[in-house]
Structure formats: structure tokens, C-alpha cells
Amino acid sequence: MDTQSNEAQYVNDPHDVRLKELFGNKDAFVSFLQDCVKAEWADGIDKDSLRKSETEFILQDFRKKEADVVYEATTNNGSQRVIFYIHLELQSGVDYRMPYRMLLYMTEILRHYYNNASEDERDLKDFKFPAVIPIVFFSGSQQWTVPTSLREMFEGYERFGNSLVNFNYALVDAKGYDDDSVQGFQSRLLRVMMMFEKSESVADLIEVIGKYEVDIKNLSEEELRILNAAIDILKTLYRGEETSRLDEAQRLINEKEVTGMLSNLIANERIRERQIREEERQQGIEQGIEQGIEQGIEQGIEQGIELQKVETAKAFIGMGLTVEQVAEGTSLPTEEVERIKAELSQ
Predict the structure, then answer these.
(1) Cβ atoms 192, 231 nearer than 8 A
(2) CA 182, CA 88: separation in Å to the nearest integer?
(3) Which CATH architecture has domain 1-153+162-177?
(4) CB neighbours (10 Å) of residue 277?
(5) Cα distance between residue 321 and residue 241, in whole Å
């Protein structure tokens, strides 16, 4: 599949790149299909036939939001062609237009395939399109509540049933995976990168590196390059934090000294976190004391002013001034002046 000329204008977000790099690795991609998509046909994919396409199907309406990976392969002992379209949905929220968007992408893939086929081939009675498998990889924080079938976007779809055009896309939600659920993944790189997707701080990333030190030590040079690229990109995401600790972790990874030394780095990281929390707690206490002192002084001044008003009111009453005159002279309410006068007359 050739790259379309109008796609050169599209520039990938750096965070899209880390997943494109991941799925550019054949072993990771096959593991993704078999361990995450879990379709019956996944085991029949011929890994040697996999060819990553450089074509990106960027639709004008969604140009600023798109990131995708397209693979061609054969299955069933080479007798059937298949195209995998993996849409990387890295927005924090969900897009309820997804079934419609996937329809447009699939249509573009089929149109592109048809236009690049020879006229002689297209005229044959048994001309067939390759199977197109749509997959959405979602790494947002929200719950994915979008229908996975196109049919559900039509009014009255229950009534019209098979009369409506339909397909189902496979959804892989990154937040649904934890350390236990990735242990069976065939790809070491996919295990580590899936946990990277769940990390929310430098400390989380370092902890993932520590937990998967055995996998990391056994990565190939190409896989290690992809892992380093992902860490470099994630460092830009957490640039407000002290990323020098990630630099040290990378050095240990690349020098194959993960065991032991990285454990010390993780331990020091947790000690540092506790120290920061304790400093924040102490700072909060000190701020509370200061605020309490300030409030106490202000309250004392206010109380002193009120007491002075009462003493002045008593003096005015002793001089024979009326309640109204005392209230006006001291700014006290009339009711308060009457109360003070009643106490003095007892």
C-alpha cells in the first residue's frame, strides 16, 4: 500500500510515536493480537508475512486527532489476505463517533486497495477485498462506553437488524491491564509498554522498570531501542518532575545492570516520596499555626474594640444621654444599648 501524497502534512504527536514504535515490532504486534484482541483467527496469522504499511488514513474532519498503524498479512496458511487497522485513541475522554469514524477509515482502506489493484484483477469474477480488521487501542482515563458495533449508531437498529450495514471493532483498553494480566503476554516488550501506559509519574515508571527487570534484560537491541524511545518521550510528559532519576534508570538498563542497582534507585525513590510527603505535612502544620495566630490576633483586636464600645456606652448612659444618642455615638445597635442600660439600672 503506497503512501498517499496528502498525508505528508500530518505530524504525529510525540506520545503517538511511542505506540507506533511498539506496534512496529512484529513480535509485539502478534502478541497484541493474540493476547489482547484474543480472536480465534489470531493464532493463524503468518508472522513472516506481516508487512507494516506507511500509509496513514487521515480524514479531514479528524486530522488533528488521528494516529494509526496499518499492517498487511496472510492467514490460513497464506490463502487469505488481511489488513489490520489499529487506531490509537490517546485522548483522555471517549469519542462517541468512533463506530462512524472506523467506517470511514475502513472505506478509505478498501478504496485505496481497489484503486491500486490492476484493472484486470478488478474485472475478475472472483475479485475479493482483503479482510479489514478494525481495532481501537484506548489509553484514556475514562470508562469506554461507546458501542463497538456500527449498527447501534442507526435509529431503530433493533427493528431493521441485518438490513443495516454493520461491523464490530475490537477494543483494547490499556487501563484494564495490571501486572497479573500481562504476565502471559508473549512479548516482553508489550508487557513493559502496557504498564508504561498506566504510569502517572516518574516514580511509577521507575517502579515498572524495577518490576520487569528480567524482561528488560532479555530484550533484543531493537526492542531496547523502542523502550528507550518510549522513556525519552514519557520524560517530556513528566518534564515538571525530576527526570534525572529516569536518566539513571536508562543508563542501568542499557548497561544491563538492572538488578540490584535499580532496586536501590527504586528504594531511594520511595524514601524521597515519603520525605516529600512529611515535608508537605510539616509545612501544612506550620501554615495552620501561623493562620491560627493571625486569626487570634484579629479576633482579639475585634473583641477589644467591642469592649471599648461597651465601656463608652456605659459612660454616655451615666451622663444622661438617650439610647438613640448612645447608639449613634458608639455605633452599637439600639438593642445592645438598651441591654447595657438595663444592666446598669439593676
Answers:
(1) no
(2) 19
(3) 3-Layer(aba) Sandwich (3.40)
(4) 10
(5) 70
Tell me the C-alpha to C-alpha distance, in Å, between residue 228 and each of 19, 22, 190, 238, 310: 12, 11, 14, 15, 76
With a CB cutoff of 8 Å and minimum separation 6, the contacts of 248 are 265
pLDDT category at 182 given cuts 50, 70, 90 is very high
Block residue for cell numbers 444618642: 325
Name the residue among 206, 203, 199 with its Cα closest to residue 273. Answer: 203
Neighbour tally for 282: CB within 10 Å: 10
Question: To the nearest 10°, the Cα dihedral for 165, 147, 52, 92?
Answer: 150
Contacts of 137 (CB under 8 A, 6+ apart): 19, 86, 87, 88, 89, 172, 174
Cα–Cα distance between 28 and 22 in angstroms, integer? 7
Question: What's the pLDDT at 78?
Answer: 80
| Burial per residue of 118-136, b for 16 or more beta-carbon CB atoms within 10 angstroms, e otherwise | eeeeeeeeeeeeeebbbbb
Pair 263, 210: CB distance under 8 Å? yes
Laid out side by side, the sheet with 68-75 consists of 51-53, 68-75, 80-89, 131-138, 170-173
The residue with cell 431503530 is 156
278-336: pLDDT as tens digits: 666 667 666 766 676 666 666 666 767 777 778 877 877 777 778 888 787 778 888 88
User: Higher model confidence: residue 239 or residue 248?
Assistant: 248
Radius of gyration of the chain, Cα coordinates, nearest whole angstrom: 34
